[in-house]
Each structure stands twice: as C-alpha cells, then as structure tokens.
Amino acid sequence: MHYNREAWDCERSAGPPQASSAPSGGSALHAVKSVGAVSCFGPNPPSDVLARMQRNGVKAVVANSRPNDGTRALAALELTRQAGVTVVPFIRLYRNRADYDNWFRDETIYDMVQAEFARGVTGSQAGPYKGIGEFHLYDSANANGPVARKLMQFAQKNKLAVLAHVDDTAIDLLMAHAPDARLIWAHTGIGGPPVSRVDALFAKYPQLMGELSYRPGLTCEGGKLCSEWRTLLLKYPQRFMIGSDTWVNQRWVQYDELMKGYRVWLGELPPDVARRIAWGNAAGIFGVTEQ
Ligand SMILES: [Zn+2]
Predict the structure, then answer these.
(1) N or C of the chain: less Cβ packing under 10 Å?
(2) 119-152 per-position pLDDT tens digit
(3) 58-93 per-position pLDDT tens digit
C-alpha cells in the first residue's frame, strides 16, 4: 500500500514514543514508519510533523522514505534533535514508484541496499541504518524470489530489522530464508488473518514482532480492544508495537486522533504491558533510550 503521489514516499513511522500523560494511564507512543524528506512534506514540513510528535509524547520514529535521501535528511536535521525525536532509520527498497511492484525481481535493489547500509546517516543523528522496509508483497510467492532471500539473509547477518507488509504465508517464506532475522510484521497482517493464525506464527518464530497500525479487528466498540486481541497482547507483551503509518499527508492531519485512539486501548492494559507496547518493545530492539 502506501506510496505517495509525490516524489517522496513520505511513509513515516513512528517508533517508540514514551510514557506521557495519557489520560487513561497508558503510555504514549508508537513505532512505525515514516518520514520522508524535507521536500515531501508539502503542507507538513518537518517543523509541523515534529510538533505533532512532541505534543503526543512521541520520542522516536522509525523513518523510511523513497528514495532514502528523505530519511537521511530528517536524521541530519538539527531541528529533529532539538525536538527530542530519535530517528531510527530504515532502508527503503524503492528508488521510485516502479520499484514498489518490482523490487523482488530486481537485483539492483540488493546492490542499492548494500550501498545505503555502507553509507549510513550523517549529521545530527549520525549512525548506521537499523532496518530494511517497509516493503510490500501482494503475491506471497514472491517472498521466495532471490532478491527477497538475499535481503533477509543480509538483514540477519547485519542485525537489521525487517519491516514487511505481507500476508501470513509470506511470513513463513521469509523466515525460512533467515530464521534468526528480526521480522516486524507491518499491521500484523493488513488482510486480517485470524488471531489464532497470528498466535501460531508468534509461537513458531520468537523473533517475529507485530506492528499494529491499520490492523483489522484490533478494536471494537468505543475503541476498546476486542477481547481476542486483548488476550493475544497479554500473551505476548514483548512482541507488539504501535505505529502511525503516516503514508500520506492526511495521516498527519489525523495524527492527534491516532495517538489518542492508541491511548484508549493501551489504558485498558496493565501499565507495564502498555508501556512495553507503546515504547519499550521497539525501543529495546533499536537501542533507543529516553532523552
Ligand atoms: Zn503497510
């Protein structure tokens, strides 16, 4: 899903945010994809999106953009550092819109990822990339292609997380390439596979984590957790994280409401579990500490 009509992808994730004065007692935060480049923000320049993060207690974001210049620009900005927002940079597989549908059959994508990883990000938050993605597969069979296999093995070798927008079948196929890779399942299955299937995959792959934006069936009446999801989150308190998935500018307009919605159901959970999902799980795997 997620691409932007503009030159930049603008897919922004928010990573881990932090505990804050959530009305319900839950922590704030979320993790996920995000941020593009300075030029892609259109009506939402960096000063605007950083202000939205700040007022929602978001202290860290997973950022990825098409092309990767946007992520590098955001990480380098002094403004980002001043806002107290930690950028966790991910390597996007797409240089342009065409790559979105073709990356899995294009060997040059693998070359590009290696070069980008070798380069890292500079400036205010200089350092290595922490992950690959978000990438998309709409035909899970493509998870068996050579590019997907090499990328999974590259991620495993370099301890990069992989953020994948795929179905449950592709989770099995991707993990078969690199059983020790840290795979983050974007939306924990945007097609809405049954909770029992998610449970089975989490049991099978201890390294698998779930990001919860756009997850069908997660919340029920009043924005509260549906009962089977509450049970699942309590069964795997260390495996989930929240995300904003600001893949188009409209999501920035909705950002306050998104975070408020997360606080509603986080507030239903025991505080230690809420803090883990809101901040600790993502912060832990990316080595982010609160500022
Ligand atoms: Zn997605």
Answers:
(1) C
(2) 999 998 999 999 999 999 999 999 999 999 999 9
(3) 999 999 999 999 899 999 999 999 999 999 999 999
Is the peptide bond between 116 and the residue preceding it cis, with omega within 30 degrees of 0? no
Q: What separation in Å is there between the alpha carbon of 55 and the centre of ligand 1?
A: 25
Residues 6+ apart with CB under 8 A from 209: 182, 183, 184, 185, 239, 240, 241, 281, 285
Q: What share of the chain in percent tops pLDDT 90?
A: 80
Question: What is the distance in A from the centroid of ligand 1 to the CA of 45?
Answer: 22
Q: Ligand 1 centroid to 239 CA: how many Å?
A: 18
Q: Which of 13, 88, 18, 32 lies closest to 290, judged by CA?
A: 18
